[in-house]
User: Fold this.
Amino acid sequence: MAVLGASARRASFVLTYAFVSLGVALVSSRAGAQSSEADDALARERYQAAVVAFDAGSYEAALDLFRGAYELSPRPQLLYNIGTTADRLRRNVEAVEAFEAYLEQAPNASNAESVRRRIEVLREEIARQRALEEAAAAAAATEEPDEASESRGRKRRRVIGGVIGAVLVVGGGVALAIGLSQRGGSSYQAPEHDFVIQTLGGRR
Assistant:
């Protein structure tokens, strides 16, 4: 009889423990769902604010808001929007990183091919800019320390000035290109699709 009593107590304990564990799991699941819904709601607010900022030409603010939305709700569409906004700011490296991450998460997206083409264009721009920077650094490194000869000094200044001028022309073209549909005289190629896409149930 004592053995049966002990067995019954053990069975009761196991059953009670199972019910308690199930209750804890249900509460945790409910709390997790509520947390996810709250994150999505906040992400939606940031996304909508980012769209307003983007349409107003406030690309710095839009970029921060899109990134904030992605941290709360990591949807691939937000990565595309981050890349597009960074592209507008001519932050080519950041744009490429965002576009590549977008393609990793959404390789079969309807705009995947145009994004791949844009990545190639941006990589060419990155390589061109690095070449200009390296040329400027090389010109500065080979400058002769002897300042005795005025003619040599003028020649060096012309060479360095030419390199710096080329860099300034590229930089000026970059600044002028932002927000313009025509980029005359610049190597910059405008993207095929220069807008952000809808997500999080928000408006475009």
